[in-house]
Amino acid sequence: MAKTENIEKEQKAEEKSQKIRADFVGNKILTENSDAARELYNQSRYGTLLENGKLQLSLIESLHLLEKNTLGIYRTKSKQLSFDEFSKKAEKLEPNFWVRFCVYRDIRNRGYIIKTALKFGADFRVYDRGVKPGEDHAKWIVYPVYEGSTLTWYEFAAKNRVAHSTRKRLLIGVVDDENCVSYWEVRWMRP
User: Fold this and answer.
1) pLDDT tens digit string along 75-112?
2) Residue of 127, 132, 139, 164 marked active site
């Protein structure tokens, strides 16, 4: 009896350690149609679940999962991309990719679900811990910036206005030269 329990535990551990296969098609990442991919979506809300059972991931989500050794990204049937190869390709496709990735990774590693926020005019929206998209609204919208970059007062006011009009808090994620992130939360106040 103990041997079969050990074998079952080993099989489950092996299944968990297997990477989810994903293909790099154009500028999209599509996973295989698998239980592991659907579980990744159901548990952590990575990507968008498609009708065909595959998961479509953003470049940032994909690099994060590649870094965590959860995903194997293939350019061709047999050519798997390394972290450096994939990040270089992603940087060519998306402006400000590395700064956005540093903020995304930091927020995910802190236990929050973070999704794109293009419809709000921001880079990301962040849900409070324990809240999944669809269950409740996001608490913050996030703008990643490099510490050496500048914002005009008009740009800053526009970001604040977007956050206020969508009833979310504004987070500015500032990335330094060591890829560490500091956050500044901005709110409207009435004197």
Assistant:
1) 888 899 999 999 999 999 998 999 999 999 999 999 99
2) 127
Indicate the angle between helix axes 97-109 and 83-93, nearest 10 degrees. Answer: 120
Tell me, letter by letter, the H, E, C secondary structure of the chain.
CHHHHHHHHHHHHHHHHCCEEEEEECCEEEECCCHHHHHHHHHHCCCEECCCCCEEECHHHHHHHHHCCCEEEECCCCCECCHHHHHHHHHHHCCCHHHHHHHHHHHHHCCCEEEECHHHCCCEEEECCCCCECCECCCEEEEEEECCCCCCHHHHHHHHHHHHHCCCEEEEEEECCCCCEEEEEECCCCC
pTM: 0.86
Is 183 an annotated catalytic residue? no
Catalytic residue chosen out of the listed positions 54, 89, 159, 168: 168
Is 137 one of the annotated active-site residues of the chain? yes
Tell me, yes or no, if 119 is annotated catalytic: no
Domain ranges of the chain: 2-93, 97-186
- Give the separation between CA 145 and CA 149, rounded to whole angstroms: 7
- Among residues 68, 79, 92, 137, the one annotated as catalytic is 137
| 2-93: CATH architecture | 3-Layer(aba) Sandwich (3.40)
